[in-house]
Each structure stands twice: as C-alpha cells, then as structure tokens.
Design brief:
The complex is a heterodimer of chains A (107) and B (292). Chain A has 107 residues and is of the alpha+beta class. Chain A contains 4 helices and 3 strands, in the order αβααββα. The radius of gyration of chain A is 15 Å and the shape is globular. Chain B has helices at residues 3-10, 16-39, 44-55, 58-69, 73-94, 104-135, 143-165, 178-183, 191-217, 226-249, 252-282, and strands at residues 220-221, 290-291. The chains are: A alpha+beta (107), B mainly alpha (292).
C-alpha cells in the first residue's frame, strides 16, 4: 500500500524531536519502527524536509563527529514547539474528519 | 549505481558552502544503515544495496535539497542574465555597417559597444551554462563542453575588439558581422589577417564543438522544452563550427550563411534558457527531472 507520507513528515519529525535531539538516521528508524514499517522514506524526503524545517527556524542543528562519522543533530526550537502544537491540532481535525467519512458519519 | 554516484547526483548543484556538510550527513546516514544491516547478519553486498535503496531516488533527494537550499531568486537572476547574449546579438545586428572606417569617433563608440557587449556575452553565457549544468544534473560530464565554450569565447572576445579597430586588415569578423562587409576589401595576404583568422577559427571551433557536445549531454531537465533546447543548441553549435571552417577556407558565402544560422539559433537557445529559468522561478514545488 502506498501512503503519501510527505505531507505528514514535518509533523512526525517535530513530534520525535520533542523527546530530545536526534540525527537523521535515528529519526527515520524511529518513524519506521513505530509505524511497524508502514511509513518509510523511499522517496528520499527525510533530509530535504529536515533542511526545510531548519531553514524555517522550526528546528536547529549542530554537527558532531562520532566514530569518525559526521552526525547532524537536530533539536526543536521554541518556534518549532509552537508549530508542533498547531500542526497536532490541525492533524486532529483532519483525521477526525476523514474518520467520520470512512465510518459513514458515525464517528 | 554505487553510493558515490548516488551522492554526487543527490548533491549536484547545491551551494558550495553547505555541500560538504550535506554530503557528510548523507554519508553518515548510509554508513549507519550499512552497519545496522551487517549486525542483522546480512552480507556486505546486501547491506550496501539495501542501505542505498533506503536513501531513495537520488534525483528526488536532489530536487528536495535544492528547494530547501536554493532560493527561487537564483532562477529569476539567471533569467535576467540569460537575456544579455540575445540582447547583445540583436543590438549587434542593428550596428551592421554603421561605423565608418574613416570616422574615428564612430569607431571609438563602436569599439566600446563591442567591448561591453562582448564582455556581457561571455559573462552571461558562463553563468547561464552554470545554472543549466546544475539543473540538468550534468556533474563532471558538463565540465568539458562548458569549458570549451568558455575558452572559445575568451579567445573570440579580444579578436572581436581587434577586428573593430583594424577593419582595413580584417578578413573575417566572427562575432561582429560588419567585418564581413569590410572584409571584402581586406588584404587577404597580410600576416596579421592570417593570424587573426587562425585564432578566430580556433576559438569558434572550441565554442561550436562545445555547444554540440552539450546538446548531446543534456538529457535531464525538469522541462518540456528539453528536445527544443537540444535542437537549437545543436544547430547553433554546428553553425559556429561551420563558421570556423569558413574562416579557415576564407569563404565569404559559407561564413555569411553560418553566421546567420549561428545568430538565429543562438538567440533561440538563449530564449529557451529564459523560458526555462522563468518556469523554474515560478515553480513552488520541487520539480522532478524527466529522463530522455
């Protein structure tokens, strides 16, 4: 089944970073594991989305060298926390609307 | 495709000041994924294959990263810059036959005009080609044709000024058509005429071959005008190459025909550049390249 993840990816990233700073690979892994493999990034949208969020000031980043590898750690900014609250509310409205339709208006 | 090729495609055309950091980040992600697969007991080959597959389509990643790092104003600026060679060529056509070889003042004005428009043409062509190379994912493949075009123009630029100043000698005036008129009264056997003709032919040959090569190399562009652009580039390149042959053979007719072809298709090529940059400047979502 193909699900268009792109629209919800910023929300998922902001949500994961709520728990503390993290780097791209771990963010991708967490989303994949917690969605039990339903959501992954075959289209390669993770880094473009991370960099766009950084450019928008919703997350900030710093580079660390670990075992000879560069890892860019991302963390939520204050603006990102506000955006997360707003996006969660929007997602709630959106998903309840879809659920209402799918359940024939009973939800 | 191996990881190095993937990485090169995915980061093609990104700003130089961020390129190293982005490449390091993507490399770290890839190596982490490989390590995870190895820990799960996969063979090295399978681990690398799966880790690469997980990274996704390199062109899609590249489009996304460009959207995040390249401001749309780059394309608007490129569009304005691409106007200059066409404008310069059209203004040059209006100057045909204008300067009087015995009127020093008009010669000065004309020489200054040629110098400015020549410089603008070289600068605008170089910048337009850089942006084209970037959005067409040309990478190293674009280095040779773009370098040939640049060096051809560098050689032709001083010659175009020289031909303006020494119109009594000049047989062939490659960039500026007026010399075709004066050239008919030139002393063909003068050594300076011979040297200028050889140099001009060499510069033209480099430029012409460069444009023809580029027409073959550009196969990926996020635009429907790709076949048209390749066609105009090819004809312009062939026209310029023929012009270099005409210069060597000292054939006025061949020179005249190939100059006209080169100018017309040169203007068309840059007009298509302008349309392409305009499209990209307006596009607010990442564009996916088409594969020809």
């Amino acid at each position: 089944m193909n699900i268009n993840l792109k629209g919800s990816l910023p929300l998922l990233i902001l949500h994961i970073l709520q728990d503390g700073e993290n780097h791209g690979y771990r963010i991708a892994k967490r989303i994949k594991e917690e969605s039990e493999g339903v959501l992954d990034f075959k289209e390669g949208t993770l880094y473009p989305t991370l960099h766009t969020l950084e450019a928008q000031g919703l997350i900030s980043a710093s580079d660390h060298i670990e075992n000879g590898r560069t890892r860019r750690y991302y963390r939520l900014t204050d603006a990102g926390k506000n955006a997360l609250t707003a996006q969660l509310a929007e997602w709630g409205r959106f998903s309840s609307a879809v659920n209402r339709i799918l359940s024939g208006g009973e939800a | 495709m191996n990881f190095e090729t993937w990485l090169q495609t995915a980061t093609q055309g990104l700003p130089q000041n961020r390129l190293g950091a982005i490449r390091a980040e993507l490399t770290g992600h890839y190596l982490d994924a490989v390590d995870d697969y190895l820990l799960q007991g996969l063979s090295s080959d399978n681990a690398h294959t799966l880790a690469l597959r997980e990274l996704g389509d390199a062109c899609a990643v590249c489009n996304g990263l460009r959207s995040a790092h390249i401001h749309r104003s780059v394309y608007w600026r490129a569009m304005v810059i691409a106007c200059l060679p066409s404008l310069s060529a059209m203004l040059g056509l209006t100057m045909v036959g204008r300067p009087n070889p015995y009127n020093h003042l008009s010669l000065w004005v004309y020489a200054i005009f040629i110098a400015i428009s020549g410089l603008l043409t070289v600068w605008a062509t170089r910048n337009s080609l850089r942006v084209i190379g970037m959005i067409a994912y040309l990478g190293d493949e674009g280095d040779l044709p773009i370098t040939l075009i640049q060096w051809g123009l560098y050689i032709l630029f001083p010659i175009s000024i020289f031909t303006t100043w020494s119109n009594q000698w000049v047989f062939i005036a490659i960039i500026n058509t007026p010399t075709l008129v004066y050239g008919q009264s030139a002393d063909f056997n003068h050594p300076i005429v011979t040297i200028v003709s050889i140099l001009a032919s060499f510069g033209l040959m480099l430029t012409g071959v460069g444009w023809v090569m580029l027409a073959f190399k550009i196969t990926r562009l996020p635009s429907m005008i790709l076949p048209l652009l390749r066609g105009t580039m090819f004809v312009m390149g062939m026209g310029i190459t023929l012009l270099s042959v005409g210069a060597v053979m000292r054939d006025i007719r061949l020179t005249s025909i190939s100059t006209t072809i080169s100018l017309i298709f040169g203007i068309l090529t840059f007009a298509l550049f302008i349309i392409l940059f305009y499209q990209l400047g307006r596009n607010t979502t990442p564009s996916r390249p088409s594969y020809a």
